[in-house]
Amino acid sequence: MTHRLFPRRIGAAVLALTTALSLAACTSSTDPEASAPASTAMSALAMDGIIVGSGDVEIEMWGDPSCPHCAELDKAIGSDLADFVAAGDVTMTLHPMTYVSEKRGDTTDYSTRASAVLFAVADAGETDAVLPLYSLIQANQVSESGSPSDDDLVQYAAQAGAAADLSTAIADFSATATTSNDYWLGREIPGTTEVIDHVPTLVINGNVFEVREDGTDAARFTAAVEQARA
User: Which segments constitute the Thioredoxin-like fold domain (predicted)?
Assistant: First the structure.
């Protein structure tokens, strides 16, 4: 069943969000000094992210299932990224974030629910399904007509190739998704001066990739990976 939202509320929320966005990014209002404290109870999955592939080029990405700029970036580079991983060229680390739903006025918390399914798939060891699932999640963001249901998200995982029983994935991994978001939000990426206060954020071998949404992202991404491989 699809969650229904009030179009007027969504329209106003999207307008408000637009005024708060920098170019090609969904920003956060979190104070960098207020990032989540380290916790001994935090799982490695929440802190280290979802790791896919085993190539020499290391790519890290922070993306939110409710961020339209993240959807645009995935549309531009998602297929090439998956190809690089499949070819054994790239180790990809995905950090699903969860703060954009609230900024958009989404009462169904799509960000957390979708991120929970991503973490559940990774925890089940089905990492081959992670990138296809991420693309499906980004392609089916909340709109004025509604939000994907929990069952829809589980179906996306199956469509992406996950065979595990994910019937309790959202209940089981929502806390992991929230903990990961709170850990990273406002935190500086190790080895860089970049702070996670916006998504998407993409780092290739320690170099922050500039997301422009001007039609050049795909070509520049491929060139950056090829240069990192050299």
Answer: 56-211
